[in-house]
Write a structure and sequence with these properties.
- Helix content of chain A is 34%, strand content 24%.
- Chain A contains 18 helices and 22 strands.
- In chain A, the strands form five sheets. Chain A has a six-stranded mixed beta sheet with strand order 6-7-8-3-9-10, with helices on both faces.
- The longest helix of chain B is centred in the first third of the chain and has 30 residues.
- Chain B starts with a helix and ends in a 21-residue tail after the last helix.
- Chain B is globular and about 65 Å long.
- By secondary structure, chain B is an all-alpha fold.
- A two-stranded antiparallel ribbon of chain B has the order 1-2.
- Classes of the chains: A alpha/beta (534), B mainly alpha (320).
- Chains A and B meet through α2, α3 and α4 of A and α8 and α9 of B.
Chain lengths: 534, 320
């Protein structure tokens, strides 16, 4: 299209934070009425670039042109005035305010609230009808699901009459169904002529919804292509700078003896809510069991019980011996002693101490082992030497044991945790969200390490909210919903759609009554409706 | 206990509760904006001194009141610069201001008046009790008359101002744009910032309001409740006001109830000293400690959760 000016044109944007160059001479053109993807690894500078466009940061150099006019964007206010709205990765909502209060905040009409709220109510209703964005205007944000909170963020932007909408990693927190709904909303917005910038690190999303895509690598824009003229493999190569294996390369499992056996496990949390409602499963040596499920359906509790962090009732045996589930002997220390290693889901809070150095982090949990003691003191020299070796073997970059954990990227932090746990040669490895916030290059490495451990005949329990990851790594899949296992599947004989339905609580074997309902719901999903049967 | 005694106790409840109420509302504004304000005590103390000192020196009550408010504002702004502009620790800044106020007032008082850290008695240059219309006429009417004459009428103008501040605060907080933004900045400053509103400006506005209210509280102590400044005359009222703020769950009407309850405790303690309950004596110290004990009870969650504004105490830094 040559007849219209680009909705957004960035020319030569540069930005440094201290010595770190976050954006280097970046130029980009986005035509109106299109969805433009920006893809790149974590830390490539995508979010910085968009925060500059939204006036949250100021660029050191460069120009911003909106609809063919050079526009000075000095703060968020001027970005809003220029018709730009942004949905941040971490929502900027006031939790104990209602939806309508959040929407009008900063866009009130006059000094008094009543007329503003009345007006906002009306236009929220209109927007809801127009774009499938219905939210109860009087609901408090803290009572809404994450998907609905995101809708509020989009409504905020639309209420301010944004023509350009920036979304930063919008699907990271959504269930597959919520993500589909979001894409329908985005599609509607595009049809209305809005311009959308979608920042993501998920190749599938780029391929699914964008018209054009820019790739960022190491603070630079490496390419801009039409989505229809590219492929996931090509984009991945542009992102990482080398060829990347998108599928996990593994031979079929050869499971041996049962390592872990869980029977009728029940977990009640601090608030007295039953989180795990009597589940049973086995994991054999040389096998990866993946637990799929939307976050908060009991997977984390299962991990925590096995890792010795939470108490539970039921029976668990490890290599045939019973494992205590409450009391003094049910802590992380004694779990490690019987060969259970734990890579926690939240590595920054449970896996590492961010303010401590890498070498200190490589011994936590094992710091009482005799080999690290030297009389009453710790043998730090030995730990440091060992840490350097571990970091080498796990390709942690930079391989500097004296760097604090917080100074590593997400992927490299995860490698430090994995090195600590895997190198202890456990019989059972618990891995939670192994690649959350990890860039593609590191994902490949982490997956390979997990498969390598399996091939050595170890049992692995994988919990992940990424269905792709569950599908490609697991030898068997258990789907959890509302504290129960909905069923077991094998990756070769199932698909994401079936798992997605089980994650939503629809169970049953093919051919049964229940399964007919599933088929109906599948048809409904294809027609863009919400499943009615749960 | 006859009606008269009850009215007398309630009357002194109002007198003693008023400075607590003003300081509590001051704390409410600043904490609702996310600035923890432990310096209420210090601000009221400088205001008490300067209002008394200037009123005495100039003979003008209004100049005294103005000086009280201005001095309290100066401390507020120091707190603002330290904790908003330079993102310092709000507790430390507040505590430092309390120490500063405690030392500075006595030092200046000694230098100016040489009476051992106090101002000379103000004599007649102080806020007088107002007699509301019809008070005399209604006085003979049983029950209503004495209540109107003794309890409602006969306070200084500052008392009525303080009580008026309650509905005004409520209205500002919940019915105006400024109030919405103020509450938002105390809960999630990033939401305010991305909505294109200046976090710094909002927080400074809140702190300035707090300064004015503390100034009124201090001036009331020195020029209405008493006639002059004495060393440490706030006597921990700033901390009791903070306790009342927690007790009130950061809400204006609850703040009125909480401060009047604490005022009542003080009034009872003042009037009866050691209370004899049929052989069992409640010592006066217990009555004085009761506000703090009640606050602990609240904080321990016995009377429902007290959820402070979520961004309280955190300096706002744009994430990087």
């Amino acid at each position: 299209m040559t007849d219209s000016a680009p909705a957004i044109e960035l020319k030569g944007i540069s930005k440094a934070f201290g010595p770190v160059q976050a954006n280097k001479d970046i130029s980009i053109r986005v035509m109106p009425g299109t969805i433009h993807g920006i893809i790149g690894e974590n830390g490539a500078g995508k979010s910085t670039l968009m925060s500059i466009l939204y006036g949250f940061y100021k660029a050191d150099a460069g120009e911003i042109w909106i609809n063919g006019k050079k526009t000075a964007i000095t703060d968020s206010q001027s970005a809003i005035a220029a018709g730009i709205g942004m949905v941040f990765q971490h929502f900027k909502l006031v939790e104990n305010f209602s939806v309508v209060e959040n929407v009008i905040l900063g866009a009130e009409d006059g000094a008094f609230l009543r007329p503003s709220i009345a007006k906002a109510r009306k236009s929220l209703k209109k927007l809801a009808d127009e774009y499938e964005l219905s939210v109860d205007p009087d609901a408090l944000i803290e009572h809404l699901s994450v998907g609905h909170q995101q809708r509020v963020e989009i409504l905020k932007a639309l209420y301010r009459e944004a023509d350009i909408l920036i979304l930063d990693e919008p699907t990271g927190v959504l269930t597959p169904a919520e993500a589909d709904h979001l894409f329908r909303i985005l599609d509607n917005l595009r049809k209305e002529g809005k311009t959308i910038i979608l920042i993501t690190h998920k190749l599938r999303e780029i391929m699914e919804i964008t018209d054009t895509v820019s790739v960022m690598r190491r603070s630079e824009m490496t390419a801009t292509v039409k989505t229809s003229e590219t492929s996931p493999e090509h984009l991945a190569e542009l992102m990482v700078g080398r060829k990347v294996l998108l599928r996990v390369d593994k031979v079929p499992a050869t499971p041996g003896e049962t390592v872990l056996s869980v029977k009728d496990l029940r977990v009640i949390d601090d608030k007295g809510v039953e989180r795990v409602k009597g589940i049973s499963f086995d994991i054999r040596a040389g096998e990866i069991l993946g637990i799929a499920g939307v976050a908060g359906n009991g997977q984390s509790e299962v991990m925590n019980v096995l890792g010795g962090i939470m108490d539970a009732t039921g029976t668990i045996t490890m290599n045939g011996k019973p494992v205590p589930l409450s009391g003094k002997a049910a802590d992380g220390q004694s779990r490690r002693a019987i060969g259970i290693a734990h890579v926690p889901e939240d590595r920054q809070r449970e896996g590492l101490i961010m303010e401590f150095t890498a070498w200190e982090n490589t011994v936590f949990g094992y710091h009482l082992d005799p080999q690290w003691q030297s009389g009453p003191l710790m043998n730090n020299a030995a730990i440091q030497k060992e840490a350097a070796g571990k970091m080498q073997r796990f390709d942690v970059r930079p391989p500097d044991p004296n760097l604090k954990a917080k100074n590593f990227s997400g992927g490299n932090q995860q490698k430090v945790v994995l090195a600590r746990e895997i190198e202890r040669n456990p019989d059972l490895l618990l891995v939670g969200q192994p690649t959350r916030g990890v860039d593609i290059g590191a994902i490949e490495f982490i997956h390979q390490e997990i498969v390598r451990l399996r091939d050595q005949g170890k049992a692995i329990l994988l919990v992940s909210v990424e269905l792709d990851e569950i599908m490609s790594l697991s030898d068997r899949i258990a789907v959890m919903f509302d504290g129960k296992v909905m069923g077991f599947r094998e990756p070769a004989t199932t698909d994401e759609r079936e798992l997605g339905l089980m994650m939503a609580g629809i169970s049953g074997e093919p051919g049964t009554e229940d399964w007919k309902a599933v088929d109906e719901n599948l048809t409904a999903l294809e027609h863009g409706e919400t499943p009615t049967h749960g | 206990m006859d009606l008269n005694t009850i009215l007398q106790v309630l009357d002194s409840t109002v007198r003693l509760g008023t400075p607590l109420l003003l300081m509590c509302l001051a704390g409410l504004f600043s904490e609702r904006a996310g600035i923890v304000d432990i310096g209420l005590e210090g601000k009221a103390l400088v205001a008490a001194f300067f209002s008394a000192a200037i009123a005495y020196s100039t003979g003008s009550l209004m100049l005294g009141l103005l000086a009280g408010i201005l001095s309290s504002l100066v401390l507020s702004l120091i707190h603002g610069v330290a904790s908003i502009t330079f993102r310092g620790n709000q507790l430390i800044s507040g505590v430092a201001l309390n120490f500063l106020a405690s030392g500075l007032t006595v030092l200046i008082a000694q230098d100016w008046f040489g009476q051992g850290g106090r101002t000379p008695s103000l004599g007649d240059v102080r806020f007088h009790e107002l007699t509301l219309p019809f008070a005399e006429a209604l006085r003979p009417v049983p029950v209503i008359g004495p209540i109107y004459y003794d309890l409602i009428s006969g306070h200084s103008i500052l008392v009525y101002v303080a009580f008026l501040c309650v509905p005004v605060t409520w209205w500002v907080l919940y019915r105006t744009r400024f109030g919405l933004r103020l509450r938002a900045v105390g809960e999630n400053p990033a939401a305010v910032d991305t909505a294109g509103i200046s976090v710094v400006r909002l927080r400074f506005s809140a702190i300035i309001i707090a300064g004015v209210l503390c100034g009124l509280a201090g001036s009331y102590l020195a020029t209405a409740l008493q006639a002059g400044f004495v060393k440490e005359m706030t006597a921990g009222r700033g901390y009791i006001a903070l306790a009342a703020l927690i007790f009130a769950k950061w809400r204006p009407w609850y703040a009125l109830s909480a401060t009047m309850l604490f005022g009542l405790l003080q009034a009872v303690a003042l009037r009866y000293q050691n209370i004899d309950l049929g052989g069992f004596i409640i010592p006066v110290q217990f009555m004085n400690a009761l506000p703090y004990i009640l606050t602990i009870v609240i904080l321990a969650g016995f009377v429902g959760a007290a959820n402070p504004p979520r961004a309280g105490g955190d300096p706002y830094v744009k994430e990087r």
